[in-house]
Design goal:
Eight copies of one chain form a homooctamer. By secondary structure, chain A is an alpha/beta fold. The first copy, chain A, contains six helices and five strands. In chain A, strand 4, helix 5 and strand 5 form a beta-alpha-beta unit. At the A-B interface, helix 3, helix 4 and helix 5 of A face helix 3, helix 4 and helix 5 of B.
């Protein structure tokens, strides 16, 4: 068995690297959004031309990023969504909604302080983890049956 | 033409009433989540029995609320998602993701201060409004062709 | 809001009547399989001609019953599956699998003695109840927001 | 032609090995659930933390197992579901319901003593076999046209 | 419970009338193709202009008839396909294939002389009947649980 | 039998009125885009605020119009697309593509001068008519079997 | 570009070999039903045990053959259905209906004598050919743009 | 990450070559329609026999071309549609509609002179570019995160 896993959400800590490294002996292909914050914000105007209005500046970028996000989620078997300490991270919750509606297996990753605020997202998930290594353990168990 | 509209998101102001009242001469049926905050939080344990853990307390409630939310979004032609001043409102962004993945026409309603943080959600929407009366105007135009 | 509810599973107690009576003031239409055990077993051969083999006797009946079951589940918003004291009730678990794969809101109804054996079915459900009146309370809450 | 086959159900006899060995010259990739009973029961708490309640202990495990099961069934061309002598095996019947609703080719494998109880499941299948070697013969015929 | 039933196939005997009359006390809405053979053959050229080639004459008509057939099958809960004594009736078998692929409940109606030739079509059906009154009995049982 | 028909395309002649009037004795409900050219062009900025750039002015309007178009096409049994004398009418061809991909019965209405340029669109249609009264005749035949 | 092509229908002439040989320089993978008539008729009872009734003898075989047919059609880009001189070939028309409902590109292959009887099937096809070499020419053109 | 990109629309300039060459270091497989105008127009009659009527001449060709187009769009992650200077290019807008309805990521490529006429098509796109090199930049960013 092989898995395709999409890693959505927070881009300011190294949680993706922890998961990818921890799972490097498993038959998994990982996809992610572009995690360079500035590139992600400005890709639209950098390629398609500048906008006076911040709203359309953001729109152009968000739609180009959606090409990658849409493909990543649609082809995934498992979507992991990480909610971090900072920012509102509505795009993470949006991705979780997309993944849920498409019938993907959803794993949510967040600290206990967000438990109540994320209860609807968690309720759509097959696992709620606090630490990246737990996600690795889940993926290892799913693929090999081995427990930590 | 008639429309089914689901009103998702913030439950602490009267934006739903403004829209429903403003559109009361139109052929629209509105659905919403349960907007009584306490009932929404406690429905799970009130019906299915108490839990020691807040996590499972929340889970039981969120899953019962999902029965209503899922049906409301699946049957809607248009899903309006409102982001307010307070709380993290991840459930609103999650609903927007579900609506988007199901191919629903999405209208997002929020103040200008959330524009950058909501850019991915806005990019999936057919309209981004700031005021409930704009949503009424959109619905009126869609159904009758009349502009304000 | 109105709901379509399909009541699947055990046919030897009056749980369906309890739910239908308890919810008679709500805007719900209920469907069920044929609950006359003998008619359900023999409908195939009674209409399409006798079979020497019990296997084909059963097959003919099960396929005619599937016309009703399939339509009931496909059109439902909510599927309630009841597991009772007796028999193996594999058809109930099969219906739950169908409902889950079709994205229906699933409510499972069974006593605590079956908790471990039904863990995979329960894990696909939005609510696990022990008593028919809890199902009524869930439906009432979903439709009206009222708690018991 | 190549086939993907998911082997669902009973985990206490060597029927999977018999099928996989019997079909080892055919172009088939097999998937299965985790068949280590203890690991399967405890994976949730082993990875995500212990629970006081057996209900949530089971829930956590069943949901992690669902990641593997869901992927296995969704990607399969053929789903074989085995009902054995022991236990209630509601998860097997649930998997059969999922496979049926997803339009998978279903093969059911059980002894004659379960024929009446499994009539609804059998009625959704394209073949009902008693012995694992019959499943091998079906797969061989489907891929090569050769009969035993 | 109400049913939508599409009556496909042979148009030279009164089998549709027998079923509709026999079921007139049941909550069923019936649809059928246009059963006027000449109108059905010539509708294309009568409306859209004559063709020199019989092939395109037939094509124009068949495509207009497809508007009705497609809608009838797509909206049906049950599709009954009748194979009669005469003609090749490939359109009947084609309709059965469409109904099967769309997951409709299929009832096939034909005499025993066609059993071997129709084995693939019958194998996709939930009931194979010889007489129109058996179809009525099936529909009555499905809706009311009453046996003949 | 009843039909839902969406009338897409050219908005500068009275072809919609001709069809609706001609079919007024039939059980058909018609939907159309907003056919007031100015309202259709300006709805976005009139409701959601002015834009300096014509591109975003157009975008805002086109997306609001898409709420109506999407719903109209998705709920239709039959989509009629009219190509007139003037303008490029890419939105008409776009609607035809959407209708085709959704499996709707497509009727294309245009003069012979556009035959070669519309060959790909016509090839996806079940009927290609030149005059609105032919569309009425098709709808009448589909619903009643009567030929002109 | 590569293509998957399923060759359905008549099994008594060498039309499949003609197509496969003619296209052997193209990037196409072909699938077909089992074309050994006796094996195809008897596979059910040979593997799953004899039946007294010819009806169930046929059923068992047809359902095992459906495992191969279903997979072949579902994974195909193009389905070619051949109608020959002999037999009623309802299974060929059934396969064409399945292919059409699944949105596959359908090519029908038959002599001019069947044109009127096959008009509904032809009307669902993207090409109607008389000779296997025409099918090869179509496939070659689709893949390479080269005309004969 | 790898991408499948379908290049639809104008066939009289070298825009496809510019994109394919510009992206030759990226993990992308490109598909296109047959871009030989004469072959594309005449493929139907060249293979399936001549037609007296230009309408059916065109139909035969357009349907064979649809085999390639349909497969190209259905398997693509991204569909780029180019509108050029000449012709009406309704097939390009039709392809855009198909791509949109199938949920593909749509990139539209056209000069500023077509902005108003293409507003509905653009409104369904995730990016609107003027130059082929912008499409290359988008694809490079989507796959690698690198900006120009």
């Amino acid at each position: 068995m092989a898995l395709k896993v999409y890693l959505s959400g927070e881009i300011h800590t190294d949680w993706r690297d922890q998961i990818i490294n921890g799972a490097r002996d498993l038959d998994i292909s990982f996809d992610s959004p572009v995690t360079d914050h500035d590139a992600s914000d400005d890709c639209g105007v950098a390629i398609l031309g500048r906008e006076d209005s911040k709203f359309w500046h953001d729109r152009k970028g968000a739609q180009i990023n959606a090409i990658r996000t849409r493909r990543g989620i649609e082809q995934a078997d498992v979507v992991v969504v990480r909610f971090g300490e900072k920012y509102r991270q509505w795009n993470a919750a949006f991705d979780a909604g997309v993944a849920s509606a498409l019938g993907k297996s959803l794993i949510v990753l967040h600290g206990p302080e967000h438990q109540h605020a994320l209860k609807e997202v968690d309720a759509a998930a097959l696992a709620v983890a606090e630490h990246p290594e737990q996600v690795v353990q889940i993926l290892r168990y799913v693929l090999t049956g081995a427990l930590p």
